[in-house]
UniProtKB/TrEMBL annotation:
Pfam families: Ribosomal_S3Ae. It comes from the Eukaryota. Its main location: cytoplasm. One of its GO terms (cellular component) is cytosolic small ribosomal subunit. SMART domains: Ribosomal_S3Ae. It comes from Cladocopium goreaui. GO terms for biological process: translation. Keywords: Cytoplasm, Ribonucleoprotein, Ribosomal protein. InterPro entries: Ribosomal_eS1 (IPR001593), Ribosomal_eS1_euk (IPR027500). This is Small ribosomal subunit protein eS1. Component of the small ribosomal subunit. Mature ribosomes consist of a small (40S) and a large (60S) subunit. The 40S subunit contains about 33 different proteins and 1 molecule of RNA (18S). The 60S subunit contains about 49 different proteins and 3 molecules of RNA (25S, 5.8S and 5S). One of its GO terms (molecular function) is structural constituent of ribosome.
Length: 228
């Protein structure tokens, strides 16, 4: 078993979590609710990449985020328009991030008709506004600060606010984030991110030994005892 420590960019207190990664992989996914002990955040999955190995422990860094399939399917309904946009942004600390945004048109107050479809010109304006806001929010901060904006959907709420004059929107979210390019690895910055303190939380997941291996080990121990 490899113990992977995550830190900081996902929660304000310094918390270390143990995650079991797939064999042969240098990255893995974990639900945000498990990291922050908050079931309200269960709709997001965080991808973590191993940056440094210390014995049987691995120090990880943020490598992406996406909404769960159940969450996306629950938002898609008829009588509304789905609007999506994506943009590549470079943060102040050198990460190139590709962000995918989605939003849905909403019915206006006292609206009689059942549908709330947006016109093509309105969709183009909203998509342009999405890319502008995502670029503004991500290009002025470090990756750690950007992740803190993604968790409470700060960017999505700002898009809804500024697009209200074009067409009312609802459920505007950053559905996916991918790390396209990273700066040169710096062990000092990684150690500053993880720190020396923190509470070691989680449960160790031990892989049980196969029956054949247990029987062989028992036979070897018995034979050694008989020889003595």
């Amino acid at each position: 078993m490899i113990i992977c420590y995550t830190l900081g960019v996902l929660n304000s207190p310094i918390v270390r979590s143990k995650i079991l990664l797939t064999a042969g992989s240098d990255s893995g996914q974990v639900n945000l609710a498990d990291l922050n002990s908050d079931e309200d955040q269960a709709s997001k999955k965080i991808r973590l990449c191993i940056e440094e190995v210390q014995g049987r422990s691995c120090l990880t860094d943020f490598h992406g985020m996406q909404l769960t399939r159940d969450k996306i399917c629950s938002l898609i309904k008829k009588w509304q328009t789905l609007i999506e946009a994506q943009v590549d942004v470079k943060t102040t600390d050198g990460y190139v991030v590709r962000m995918f945004c989605m939003a849905f048109t909403a019915r206006q107050r006292e609206q009689v008709k059942a549908n709330c479809y947006a016109q093509t010109a309105q969709i183009r304006k909203i998509r342009r506004k999405m890319t502008e806001i995502m670029t503004q929010e991500a290009s002025k901060c470090q990756l750690r600060e950007l992740v803190k904006k993604l968790i409470p959907e700060v960017i999505g709420k700002e898009i809804e606010k500024q697009c209200k004059g074009i067409f009312p929107l609802k459920d505007c979210m950053i559905r996916k984030v991918k790390i396209m390019k990273k700066p040169k690895f710096d062990i000092t910055k990684l150690m500053e991110l993880h720190g020396d303190g923190g509470d070691d939380v989680g449960v160790e997941m031990m892989r049980p030994e196969a029956d054949d291996a247990m029987n062989t080990l028992t036979a070897d121990v018995t034979a050694a005892a008989d020889d003595d």
